[in-house]
Design brief:
It is a single chain. This protein has 345 residues and is α/β, with parallel strands linked by helices. It contains 15 helices and eleven strands. The strands form three sheets. It has a seven-stranded mixed β-sheet with strand order 5-2-1-6-7-11-10, sandwiched between helices. It has a two-stranded antiparallel sheet with strand order 3-4. It has a two-stranded parallel sheet with strand order 8-9.
């Protein structure tokens, strides 16, 4: 019997109180769906939703839906179990319809078409991923509308649904309440866009650092990364790794000395490296990440200042307000009021 190691020390340091995720996505998959598109979508959501690799659904939530509890077979032959039966679409900010092989021998269940119509009737934005837009087209929902399709399927959609306007040159197309994406790596653009709009750039930066810190996708990184971008191209591996840890630890704080130790250097040397490459000490860089995240939440969510302080790693609301005023020359309450009056959020 091989001894099992205890990996609990890698887990979250503190339990999180229940909060409403900023982005809620329901995913309904057709038979023979593409696993690659599902994986790209969910992995971006998963890494955006929590610190490090803990997989708690704090900032984002997602659920695989179906009309039954039967496993759904992917085009690659693997099967996956739905989390819940078709739920009230109003539970979600978006409903993703994930398609796959159009020539599948398993027909799309009527219940899935009915769920699409129910979500549409309730005004819930619908996302057609991979070939999910073909289901929208079959229901007549895309007539005279643009939709993104894979270049190999342009002829098919023009032949079957001549009233639909196919777009093969864009990773994401939005026309009215419908968002379409041809799948594959374009799913990363889709997922990053949703997270950036609903959770802020700090969440997408965390994903970019965590998954692509040393081999990033330039088009995605340049589109969605904010002030952390210089660190991605920094040629010192210790700086890049330190920034990765900072993005992971916006909630569960550790000291700069701990960061330095984990990347194999001292606090003094890490400070020298940050000043050289990023033009600021590590503590200031880290605090900027937290403050930018807090500012986004103040403007775009109704979370309390105390909750935002907790989400962004400040000891309490007073601590956040003090640094917020020093950095942005106003308080969170006043900034939220100004943006509310202007109708920005």
């Amino acid at each position: 019997m091989i001894e099992q190691h205890d990996y609990s020390f890698l887990g979250p340091l503190n339990p999180r109180e229940e909060t409403q995720p900023l982005l809620r996505i329901g995913i309904a998959a057709a038979p023979d769906f593409t696993l690659f598109s599902l994986s790209n979508l969910v992995e971006v959501l998963r890494h955006s939703a929590d610190e490090a690799d803990f997989s708690r659904q704090l900032y984002c939530s997602w659920a695989l839906l179906s009309h039954s509890t039967d496993k759904i077979r992917a085009s690659c032959g693997l099967e996956i179990s739905p989390i819940e039966r078709f739920a009230d679409p109003a539970k979600f900010d978006y409903v993703v319809i994930l398609g796959g092989l159009l020539h599948s021998k398993t027909s799309v269940p009527d219940e899935l078409y009915q769920y699409i119509l129910k979500a549409h009737d309730q005004g819930i934005p619908l996302i057609g991923l991979c070939t999910g837009q073909f289901l929208f087209a079959k229901l007549g929902l895309l007539n005279e509308r643009k939709c993104a399709v894979h270049f190999s399927l342009e002829t098919a959609i023009m032949k079957l649904f001549p009233q639909v306007i196919p777009v093969t040159t864009e990773p994401i197309v939005q026309d009215g309440p419908f968002i379409t994406c041809p799948g594959g790596l374009a799913t990363l653009n889709l997922a990053m866009t949703l997270v950036s709009q609903h959770c802020g750039a700090a969440r997408t930066n965390k994903v970019l650092h965590y998954l692509m810190a040393e081999n990033r996708l330039d088009d995605v990184g340049e589109t969605y990364a904010d002030g952390g971008t210089p660190a991605l191209s920094c040629n010192d591996k210790r700086v890049r790794r330190a920034v990765v840890l900072m993005h992971q630890k916006t909630i569960e704080t550790i000291s700069v000395a701990d960061i330095a130790h984990q990347v194999g250097t001292t606090k003094r040397e890490l400070t020298r490296l940050f000043n050289k490459h990023l033009r600021m000490p590590p503590g200031e860089y880290w605090r900027t990440i937290r403050l930018n995240s807090a500012r986004w939440m103040v403007v775009n969510t109704d979370r309390s200042v105390a909750q935002i302080a907790s989400d962004c790693g400040f000891t309490d609301s007073s601590h956040l307000i003090r640094w917020f005023k020093r950095s942005f020359d106003t308080t969170p309450k006043k900034m939220r009021g100004i943006h509310g009056d202007l109708g920005v959020n």
